[in-house]
Amino acid sequence: MALSSLLKLCAGALLLSSTLGNTPQANTDTMPATTHLDSIVVGAGCFWGVEKRFEAMDGVTDAVSGYADGTGVEPTYRAITQRRNQHNPNNHAEVVKISFNPAVISLTTLLQRYFEMHDPTQLNRQGNDIGTQYRSIILTNSQAQYDSAQQVMAAYQPLLTKAGFGAITTQIKPLREFFPAEQYHQDYIANNPNGYCPDHSTGVRFNPQEQEQTAAVDNSALLQGKHILVIDSESYCPYCEKFKAEVANSYSGDIPLQFRYASQLSGLTLKTATWATPTIILLENGKEVFGRQGYLSAAEFYLLLGKFKLGDSEAFNVAFDEGTDGRFCQQYEIFKNTPDGVFTDKLSGVPLFDTRDRFDSGTGWLSFTKPVTGAVIEKPDNRYGMRRTEIRAKVSGIHLGHVFNDGPNGRPRYCINATVLDFVPRG
């Protein structure tokens, strides 16, 4: 073709592209996001947690729950979970298709995290999830991926063996076809915020330094007195992060709250299984008093803590049943003339009232002109035929008392029950 004809052809193409609002620049802008990605399909038990853990990794652009590697079974959740397919070797596996940018996260690193996030020595199960649908499997899209998976698995086996685990059962195969799971399975954990992440990891790491960091922990302090033990995840668990953000980070009570991995519980006497994260366990002298698997809201956590710390007492009745101290009760007599300091929430440890705002109202209950800024919330209380304003602790939600408009010099009177407070002298 002559040069002049070629130039005319190019000019015509540019004009048409411009007319359609599709300039060559707009087309090239989309190329980096589509031409440098790779994908691999893996199964490591229930796909909900696997999907969420991979989505949290830098370099992973998408993770989709689905089914693969089955024959003669419909690729639907209803079909693969039928009893007759529980031990069917031709059943589909619950898998996750991971799209990733190799320039940000290598396939080797991705596969190392995969092996670390579950127990690849368990055959057709992960913890209490039993059946061929939960098998450990890697499905590759090329010979290079297959070879990499074999190399990573071979490197992991001696580390597991040294830690006392058996042979890896993970299958490595070429991917035939991937079937996306039903929509309600996608981003399941993000859409169901009050649950737990099944964590069946062995605790064995490829990096020896990471292994040392999560190794043995001294639990001797937990063998004396009361403690709150939270089983954390060694990999990403959104329920754990939510519990930390919404409950643990604002807790400063006098019963210590400790985080441990399931591999760091030596010396403790526990009854509750520790494969779910978070799991909250109440300890007394190193022995479990109560255990609860899964995320706890602040209200649930403080009710549990109230039973643990306060037992069957007037303080518990005030805090959770909205009771009232007796006038001039023993705790009032102790607190009415304390030194300079602050009164804190008996459960959360958060400062609520300051002695500098305390005054003697003559009522027989502690009285203050104001609370610590941002420490309490007000709620209407129309019980018993009265219209009052109830005061609750913002962090723990426990009942504190009421506020009235008959304080000194036109200021409010916060009438507060002494039994739900602790006192801390000003340092």
Strand order of the largest sheet: 7-6-1-3-2-8
Please outline the major beta sheet. 6 strands, mixed
Oligomer: single chain
Number of alpha- plus pi-helical segments: 13
Tell me the helix content.
25-40%
- Broad shape: elongated
Number of domains: 3
Span of the ends, CA to CA? 90 Å
**How much is the radius of gyration in Å?**
30 Å
User: How large is the share of residues in beta strands?
Assistant: 25-35%
Can you identify the CATH class of the largest domain? Answer: Alpha Beta
Instruction: Specify the CATH architecture of the largest domain.
Output: 2-Layer Sandwich
Counting DSSP E segments of at least 2 residues, the number of strands comes to 23
Structural class: alpha+beta
Mean pLDDT: 90
Characterization of this structure:
This protein is α+β, with helices and mostly antiparallel strands. The protein folds into 3 domains: 35-191, Peptide Methionine Sulfoxide Reductase, Chain A, CATH 3.30.1060.10; 208-296, Glutaredoxin (3-Layer(aba) Sandwich); 319-425, Metal Binding Protein, Guanine Nucleotide Exchange Factor, Chain A, CATH 2.170.150. It contains 13 helices and 23 strands. The chain has a 6-stranded mixed β-sheet with strand order 7-6-1-3-2-8. It has a 6-stranded antiparallel β-sheet with strand order 17-18-22-21-20-19. A 4-stranded mixed β-sheet has the order 11-10-13-14, with no helix packed on it. A hairpin with a 6-residue loop joins strand 19 (376-381) and strand 20 (388-393). It is elongated, with a radius of gyration of 30 Å. The N and C termini lie far apart (90 Å).
